[in-house]
Amino acid sequence: MALTKRIKCFKYMVYCYIVLLAVTGCAQIFLGTSLLWGHSGHYGVVQNRLWAPAALLLCLGPGTFILCWIGCQATNQKKKCLLGLFATFLVINILIQFLLCGWSLAMREHLPSSVEIYIDDSFVEFLDKFSRTKVDNLHLWNRMQSQLQCCGVDGPLDYRRLSLPWSCCSRPETAYESACDTHYKRGCLAVVSEQIKYTLLITAFGAAIIAIFQSLGLFCVVHLAILYGKNDNGYDNNKLSKKRQQQFLPLSIQDKRQDIPSPLSLSPTAPGHRVLKTSAPGGKK
């Protein structure tokens, strides 16, 4: 009876934990999507690099919902093996998120040198095209300089041999007007580096916090699997003990339990049976 109450208690705790898992899955999808959307403003400048941590965090969201489904099925069906599989996948998911946290922080430490190489290569291509056309108002660098309010790689002096593009002007009159009175002073390298650093930091801390929340109910899942195993063993032992007790009962009691009539209780008028004669009292036949 006590085992049944413990199973019921931990069963409801696992259900609450599955709801918490679903919430963390929504947080993974929302956070990963937001970080990737912020990265889309300069993804071409950095040669489509440095987006993998946010994308991995986004992909873990649907995986968490699959884990929630496995956990519900295992709890409802009271299957010890399925609960063990659920706990194993949970541990793998949590470890991946902690590794993602370390990967993001390590990438953040080596960020300035790698971003500088990517931006320099992209800016050289932009200068070559700008020196020939000067009207490509849809170019990635024009859009980025206008959105991030920056100019060049290190500042406006990068255009010392050319006129400033319209995207460097704080108040451009038209997209084709290159001359302007005021322009942005800061370079795009510092702005993009700060944004990517912020994105990687949010990815690292978000993955770590979500992993901590997902590990809160892991003990309940493991303990419920153990209780299901004890319950199954107890049920099998009870069946085996009852069967052994029945085997060692006297034959007459076994016959009564199995509702098999005794040969002495057969009806004398039953066809095919002899009538058993007993001696009359007093020695008379």
The coarse silhouette is rod-shaped
- Give the uncertain stretches in residue-range form: 273-279
Radius of gyration: 39 Å
> Considering DSSP H and I runs of 4 or more, what fraction of the residues is helical?
55-70%
Strand content: under 5%
Cα-to-Cα separation, first versus last residue: 63 Å
- Order of helices and strands, N to C? HHHHHHHH
Q: What structural class is derived from the secondary structure elements? A: mainly alpha
> What is the tally of beta strands?
0
Q: Main beta sheet, described?
A: none
Average pLDDT works out at: 76
Q: Treating each run of at least 4 consecutive H or I residues as one helix, how many helices?
A: 8
Notes on the protein architecture:
The chain is mainly α and 285 residues long. It is built from 8 helices and no strands. It has helices spanning 2-39, 52-77, 80-109, 111-132, 140-148, 188-214, 218-247, 251-257. Helix 3 runs antiparallel to helix 7 (218-247). The radius of gyration is 39 Å and the shape is rod-shaped. Mean pLDDT is 76; it is low at 273-279.
List keywords for this structure.
rod-shaped; 285 residues; 0% strand; single chain; mainly alpha
Short structural description:
The protein has 285 residues and is mostly helical. Helix content is 66%, strand content 0%. It has helices at 2-39, 52-77, 80-109, 111-132, 140-148, 188-214, 218-247, 251-257.
How is the secondary structure organized here?
Layout: H1 2-39, H2 52-77, H3 80-109, H4 111-132, H5 140-148, H6 188-214, H7 218-247, H8 251-257
Helix pairs in contact: 1-2, 1-6, 1-7, 2-3, 3-6, 3-7, 4-6
